[in-house]
Design a protein that fits this description.
This protein is an alpha+beta fold. It is built from two helices and ten strands, in the order αβαβββββββββ. The protein has one domain: Lamin Tail domain (Immunoglobulin-like, Sandwich).
Length: about 140
């Protein structure tokens, strides 16, 4: 079994069971949401130089937990201070995308917020994913 197939089965089983996913993503309602959070790197490794490379080392992973492609156009990712990034992508079945804080060239696996500052607070923050209608799909907090 390939790594992609194993990932897809693991995510599908966790979503079906309403389980906590890697990185602590927890469904926000009784029904399992179509997307959630995977790993988060909120504290850019090394010294905070405010360089683009340092800002891009800060990221949040969004995971499609379904067996179908999700159109995330118009969905938003925001922090507790309401800094907001609007998504413009389709995320394949059981795929994940990292949203980097700095600037870069978007790919199927990595997109870039384009912020000139760090977004995620190192001591505590909350990432919120909302659908195109503004409904909260998932949250992830750290302290």
């Amino acid at each position: 079994m390939s790594a992609t197939q194993l990932f897809a089965r693991t995510v599908a089983a966790a979503a079906a069971a309403g389980a906590v996913l890697a990185g602590g993503a927890v469904p926000s309602s009784a029904a399992s949401p179509a997307a959630g959070f995977g790993a988060v790197q909120y504290d850019s490794p090394g010294k905070d130089t405010r360089s683009n490379a340092s800002r891009n080392a800060e990221w949040v992973t969004i995971v499609n937990k379904t067996g179908r492609t999700l159109d995330l156009t118009g969905w938003t990712l925001s922090d507790a201070e309401r800094h907001t990034y609007r998504l413009h992508l389709k995320l394949g079945a059981y795929k994940a995308v990292r949203v980097h804080t700095g600037s870069g060239r978007d790919t199927a696996t990595d997109v870039y917020w384009g912020s000139g500052n760090y977004v995620w607070n190192n001591d505590r923050d909350t990432a919120t994913l909302r659908d195109a209608r503004g409904r909260t799909v998932a949250t992830k907090s750290w302290r």
